Structures are given as C-alpha cells and as structure tokens.
Automatic annotation (TrEMBL):
InterPro entries hit by this protein: NTF2-like_dom_sf, SnoaL-like
Domain of life: Bacteria
Protein name as it appears in the record: Nuclear transport factor 2 family protein
Domain SnoaL-like: 16-116
Residues forming coiled coils: none
Transmembrane region(s): none
C-alpha cells in the first residue's frame, strides 16, 4: 500500500480550498491561492474565453463565471507528480439557455500556489451559447 506524498496532500487541500472559495464567492480566498503572475485560459469564443493574465484578472474571471449562476459540482480532485486538476460538472439555467458541461480545470502549481490554470470542456459550442 502506497502513501500519498506531502506534495500530493497539499495539492489536494489546495484544490478543495479553490473549489470551496469558488462556490462561496470567497474572492480574497482565491486570490491568496494564486501567484501574482497567474493565468487562466478557457477555450471558446465568448465573454469568458481566452487568457486572463495576472492574479487579479484570474479573480475577475472567476467572479464573471460565478455571476452567471453556475453550480460547480466537484466530481474528483486529481493530482499528478507536481500539479492538480479539478473534474467538475457545471450547470446553470437562464430563460433562453441552459449550461450542462463537464470540464477539467488543470492547475499548474509552483511553490504551493497556483501559477497557471487551463480549463478543458466537453461542450465548447454550449459554452459559447451560454456565456454571451
């Protein structure tokens, strides 16, 4: 039986903290997890697509996404040797559109904090239609 390394345990804790802060709107909590030069890249061609550069821009991106009323269901926290991924099922509804997507948010870590985030989506056209 193998035991989890201290780095993996720390990465899992960071992932739980990030998800909790996102679901509760703890923007200062998210900011504390980020390096100043952090980035967040999302696919698609909509209001949340592209790369947010800098920790404050990453927090603003999180606020914008949350402002659409998303439910961020955490399915799994995954760790690699040095990094972290959150497997999520995001859903939201508004009068003219529904969002129902599975995604992986991959966080590259540096010195115990998030340096870069890249999100992979199951339904980019659905994301484009929802985030107008």
């Amino acid at each position: 039986m193998s035991t989890m390394s201290a780095e993996n345990t720390a990465a899992l804790a960071l992932g739980r903290t990030f998800h909790q802060a996102l679901t509760t709107g703890d923007w200062a909590g998210i900011r504390a997890l980020l390096h100043d030069d952090a980035t967040w890249t999302l696919p698609g061609d909509n209001t949340i697509s592209g790369t947010a550069e800098g920790a404050d821009a990453v927090v603003e991106r999180a606020k914008l996404i949350a402002s659409y009323g998303l439910r961020f269901e955490l399915l799994h926290l995954l760790v690699s040797r040095e990094n972290l991924a959150l497997s999520l099922h995001n859903t939201a509804h508004r009068e003219d559109a529904d969002l129902d997507e599975h995604l992986s948010t991959v966080c590259r870590l540096r010195d115990g904090r998030i340096a870069d985030i890249e999100t992979y989506l199951s339904d980019v056209p659905g994301m484009n239609a929802f985030f107008v």
